[in-house]
């Protein structure tokens, strides 16, 4: 009996847009907010349609770049146009088809946590944009990723990532936080996507406040530099391995 293909609403929405349906849009469902549309065009932004944090991150890239959760490749293509060698990965097979069709030179379908098990490749920059740190899913995932990233980084390499503090979602009318301190971390959000009647698998996404990220990165042996932030409590961070961890890991 043939195996049912995995659902891929994100990939199918991007493929539809690429093939001429400029109104293709996903619906985003989460456990912290009402459902909302996400136009597929968002993944196809030009440089000047990107938020300033993303443009800053592209300026900070160096060397060989691994674009994690590359989507339709807007960052990879911009970096390629600047002469960078970029490998783009995404867990969505449809996204990888889009990456290849749009001219991303190296594109592959990978789960984030399968990378260090692959043949050894090293990168000067690991790029995680569009709240890209969220790819780790949970605090446990963050801890695991920070260890696995050590095997992906070239000497002197960096992780450039964006994330957000979403505590504002839990404020009452007086501005006080209403959070269950005995429950999961408030930045661990559960999502699923739908497109044209297709429902994707649920997944976790992490929104890490800056203080928490600082603690986890310190514990894992990284130097932390907060490069910039915007008015929506989103920030751009650079993580580099402390000197002693380059030789010890």
Please provide a written account of the structure.
The strands form two sheets. Strands 5-4-3-6-7-12-11 form a seven-stranded mixed beta sheet, with helices on both faces. Strands 1, 2, 8, 9 and 10 form a five-stranded antiparallel beta sheet that branches. Helix content is 25%, strand content 29%. The chain has one domain (50-186, 207-248): Rossmann fold. The chain starts with 8 loop residues before the first helix and ends with a helix. With 249 residues, the chain is of the alpha/beta class. Helix 1 packs parallel to helix 4 (93-101). The model has no long low-confidence stretch (mean pLDDT 91). It contains seven helices and twelve strands. Keywords: Methyltransferase, Transferase.
Defining traits:
single chain, 249 residues, alpha/beta, Rossmann fold, 7-stranded mixed beta sheet, 5-stranded antiparallel beta sheet, 7 helices, 12 strands, 29% strand, globular, transferase, Methyltransferase domain-containing protein, methyltransferase
Low-confidence stretches: none
Largest sheet: 7 strands, mixed
Helix content: 25-40%
Supply Rg: 18 Å
Please state the overall shape, judged from the principal axes of the Cα atoms.
Answer: globular
| Alpha-beta content class | alpha/beta
DSSP strand tally = 12
Number of domains: 1
Multimeric state: single chain
Beta strand %: 25-35%
- Look at the structure and name the CATH superfamily: Vaccinia Virus protein VP39
Q: Any guess at the CATH architecture?
A: 3-Layer(aba) Sandwich
Strand order of the largest sheet: 5-4-3-6-7-12-11
The CATH top-level class label: Alpha Beta
**Termini distance?**
45 Å
């Amino acid at each position: 009996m043939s195996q049912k293909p995995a659902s891929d609403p994100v990939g199918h929405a991007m493929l539809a847009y690429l093939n001429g349906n400029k109104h293709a849009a996903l619906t985003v469902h989460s456990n912290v907010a009402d459902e909302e549309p996400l136009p597929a065009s968002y993944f196809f932004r030009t440089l000047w349609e990107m938020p300033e944090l993303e443009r800053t991150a592209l300026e900070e890239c160096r060397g060989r770049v691994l674009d994690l959760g590359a989507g339709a490749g807007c960052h990879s293509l911009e970096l390629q146009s600047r002469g960078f060698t970029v490998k783009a990965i995404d867990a969505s097979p449809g996204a990888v088809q889009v990456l290849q069709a749009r001219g991303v030179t190296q594109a592959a379908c990978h789960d984030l946590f399968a990378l260090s098990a692959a043949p050894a490749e090293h990168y000067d920059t690991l790029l995680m944009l569009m709240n890209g740190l969220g790819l780790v899913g949970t605090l446990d995932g963050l801890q695991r990723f920070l260890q696995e990233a050590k095997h992906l980084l070239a000497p002197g390499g960096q992780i450039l990532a964006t994330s957000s503090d979403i505590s504002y979602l839990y404020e009452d009318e007086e501005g006080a936080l209403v959070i269950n301190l005995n429950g999961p971390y408030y930045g661990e959000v559960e999502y699923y996507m739908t497109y044209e009647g297709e429902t994707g698998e649920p997944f976790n996404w992490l929104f890490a406040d800056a203080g928490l990220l600082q603690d986890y990165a310190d514990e894992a042996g990284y130097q932390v530099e907060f490069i910039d932030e915007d008015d929506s409590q989103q920030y751009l961070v650079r993580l580099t391995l402390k000197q002693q961890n380059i030789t010890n890991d």
